[in-house]
Prior knowledge:
rod-shaped; 2 strands; two-stranded antiparallel sheet
Amino acid sequence: MSSSNSTIYKQIQATNVLRHELETLKSGRKVYLQQPGSLVFFKSDKDTALKNCQQNLQSLQRQHEELQNKMDLNLFYNYPSSIVTLSFIYNIASNKTFIVEQMKSFLVHKKDPSHYFKQLLLCTDLLQSCNIING
């Protein structure tokens, strides 16, 4: 996960906590909200604060999804399509023994099979870490 993606994820977690805290307050309650980008706080209505918090949360979630999608697409551009295809086939197929034999056959016919094998393993790990495979 990239640093900007993890930063947004932490902001989402903090905003979720704030939303939960605001939801537990009684209606009509006054709360202090921080002025964005400063150390100034102002008094506001709980319902207004909750509405702003939910809008902020939705915005952060959209940013997080956009970054995640961008990262997933970049992953595919970093590897040859044959490596990505084999990785998907290996993880999706029910008969993994057959797929392993196909991978061996593919690797034997390459000039540098160890390089392709390392790429395949790295690509598989990256795909799994991005939750593209095994969901």
